[in-house]
Amino acid sequence: MIQPIAFRDNTLRLLDQRLLPAHEEWLELAEPQQVIEAIRDLVVRGAPAIGVTAAYGLVLGAGQLPDSRPEFDEGFAELCARMAVARPTAVNLAWAVRRMRALVTATPEASVSGLRVMLLDEARAMQVADVEANRALGHHGAKLLGDEVTVLTHCNAGALATAGYGTALGVVRAAVELGKSVSVLADETRPYLQGARLTAWELHRDGIPCTVITDNMSGHMMQTGAVDAVVVGADRIAANGDVANKIGTYMVAVLAREHGIPFYVAAPTSTIDLELSTGDEIPIEERDGEEVLVIGEERMAPLGVSAAYPAFDITPARLVTAIITETGVAIAPYEESLRVRCAAATGG
Ligand code: MRU
Q1: Which of 134, 152, 169 is a domain's end point?
Q2: Is the confidence at residue 7, as pLDDT, over 90?
Q3: Do 113 and 178 belong together in one domain?
Q4: N vs C: which end of the chain shows fewer Cβ within 10 Å?
Q5: Average of pLDDT values for 64-75?
Q6: Residue 203 pLDDT > 90, yes or no?
Q7: Mean per-residue pLDDT for 280-285?
């Protein structure tokens, strides 16, 4: 199983997801600004993966700041503010930055060299904990699937979107580990093609059967009985269970409800934002419409025509059968069950 983020010798190595599946190239980053740009430009993407990446970006930044405390604190706060807004929708980014910053503000007596060690340890701990959370949620989710199933997924919520193992694809991997026969229908996920390029790449690599469909085929597949369950990831989940995920997820959830197919969301508790009461408050990233108009080098629409590109949508909680977290499975009413899942994660 691929792990898309590595940190050694004060260098962050990221598998360049823009180039998959044609090229497997790793970028080596030593500057925090390069990390901000890598998140913004989708070198690394997926909610948990950008959180862990940001944490390492702050480690790089900490290494370059002055050795005296007031100056270090000021520079670190400014870097955290810039890192946290590299992308707006996935809450894991702000969550990871907040955790790193809290370490600094909670230890005013520590030396800067001591802080640098603590920050690196914290980033490493987040990376390890993410893989553990994905394995745990994967095993909770796998129990919800039958022994022989076809799972439809949207976007890439796999090892590539996390520190490893994946969330939605973590459920698939865990089901395979339990001896279940699982095949995946991967929505291609226009315009960045996370499904066709990334989900298909990592499943194929691991020998898990995967069939790519274009985004407009999922209704037909459900209507003809080809889908047993939908499992997707999330970028942010509001306290009432509304789910922000890759654009097109909402459409899939409506279709699943129409056809009586369970719609599961798999996400670690770090993706749950209890501070937002509903999905209406989740900021939706708007990306450059040019990314919709062009595939590779090829322009799909006449020059001069514009395109819209909201990168995420909100699936209302009423369409969500269950939310699978590392501490267990939450079902409606989500106000109650998500609080319980989050409290369990922090030992509360
Ligand atoms: O724009 P992306 O590729 O970062 O969007 C990713 C998704 O929407 C994923 O489904 C989500 O982050 C969950 S990843 C485990």
Answers
A1: 134
A2: yes
A3: no
A4: C
A5: 97
A6: yes
A7: 98
Expressed as residue numbers, the domain containing 289 is: 138-346
**Which of 103, 134, 165 is the C-terminal boundary of a domain?**
134
Question: Residues 149, 55: one domain?
Answer: no
User: Which amino acids bring their CB within 6 angstroms of ligand 1?
Assistant: 45-48, 90, 155, 157, 161-162, 167, 194, 233-235, 245-246, 311
Same domain for 146 and 85, yes or no, is no
Distance 47 CA to ligand 1 centre (A): 5
* Pair 249, 158 in one domain: yes
Q: What CATH number corresponds to the domain at position 219?
A: 3.40.50.10470
259-272 tens-digit pLDDT = 999 999 999 999 99
Q: Kindly report which listed range (6-20, 78-92, 284-298) carries the lowest average pLDDT score.
A: 284-298
Phi-psi region of 219 (alpha: psi -120 to 50; beta: other; left: phi over 0): alpha
Q: Work out which ligand 1 atom sits closest to the CA atom of 166.
A: 15
Q: What is the pLDDT of residues 70-94, one digit of tens each?
A: 999 999 999 999 999 999 999 999 9
Task: Determine the Cα–Cα distance for residues 179 and 247; give it in Å rounded to an integer.
Answer: 32
User: Which residue is catalytic, options 73, 130, 187, 235?
Assistant: 235
CA of 29 relative to ligand 1 center, distance in Å: 22
**Does the annotation count 235 as an active-site position?**
yes
- Regarding whether 211 and 341 lie in a shared domain, the answer is yes
175 and 119 in a common domain: no
Same domain flag for 112 and 240? no
Q: What's the total number of domains in the chain?
A: 2
pTM, 2 dp: 0.97
Nearest CA to ligand 1 atom 8: 246
Same domain, 185 and 81: no
Give 323 Cα–ligand 1 centroid separation in angstroms.
Answer: 16
Tell me, in angstroms, the distance from the centre of ligand 1 to residue 155's CA: 7
- Segment 105-125 shows an average pLDDT of 97
